[in-house]
């Protein structure tokens, strides 16, 4: 499981990329949270043909995002890459810019992955 952030200069938002291994859950998976009013099925993770499924969600810089994954048959599950996990799901604190995310992430003992800006060499959307 992975959560990556990248600046989206086209609209002053940050793209939050949710990625799961294709075999993380049997059947379709959507990410549900504060960014889509907790509406199931709005943001389905799409198979990229590389063994992973994912979706990009534009979010406001400096915001706090709460989310969970929803799989088939109503199975909710959390992402261990979130900044924190509560009984209501994962929490990710969105920096003002994605470059600000490349700081020590105490929950994982490492740095949060940061992708190149959309449209930059080696970067882009999934």
Which helices and strands occur, and which strands form pairs?
Layout: E1 2-8, E2 13-21, E3 29-33, E4 46-47, E5 52-59, E6 64-71, E7 76-77, E8 84-86, E9 89-93, E10 104-105, E11 110-111
Antiparallel strand pairs: 1-2, 2-5, 3-6, 4-5, 6-7, 6-9, 8-9, 10-11
**What string, H for helix and E for strand, traces the elements in order?**
EEEEEEEEEEE
Structural class: mainly beta
Q: Look at the structure and give the mean pLDDT.
A: 83
* Percentage beta strand: 35-45%
Shape: globular
- Fraction of residues in H or I helices: under 10%
N- to C-terminal distance: 15 Å
Number of strands: 11
| Helical segment count | 0
Rg for CA atoms? 14 Å
Task: Report the sheet with the most strands, covering strand number, pairing sense and barrel closure.
Answer: 5 strands, antiparallel
Report low-confidence residues grouped into runs of 5 or more. Answer: 103-126
Short description:
The protein is an all-beta fold and 126 residues long.
General description of the model:
Helix content is 0%, strand content 42%. The protein is an all-beta fold and 126 residues long. The chain is globular, with a radius of gyration of 14 Å. The C terminus is likely disordered.
Features:
single chain; 11 strands; disordered C terminus; globular; mainly beta; four-stranded antiparallel sheet; five-stranded antiparallel sheet; 126 residues
């Amino acid at each position: 499981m992975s959560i990556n952030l990248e600046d989206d200069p086209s609209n002053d938002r940050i793209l939050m990329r949710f990625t799961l291994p294709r075999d993380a859950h049997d059947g379709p998976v959507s990410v549900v949270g504060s960014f889509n009013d907790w509406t199931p099925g709005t943001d389905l993770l799409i198979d990229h043909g590389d063994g992973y499924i994912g979706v990009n969600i534009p979010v406001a810089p400096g915001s706090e995002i709460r989310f969970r994954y929803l799989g088939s048959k109503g199975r909710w599950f959390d992402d261990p890459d979130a900044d924190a996990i509560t009984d209501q799901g994962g929490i990710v604190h969105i920096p003002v810019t994605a470059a600000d995310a490349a700081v020590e992430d105490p929950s994982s003992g490492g740095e949060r992955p940061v992708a190149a800006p959309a449209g930059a060499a080696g970067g882009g959307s999934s």
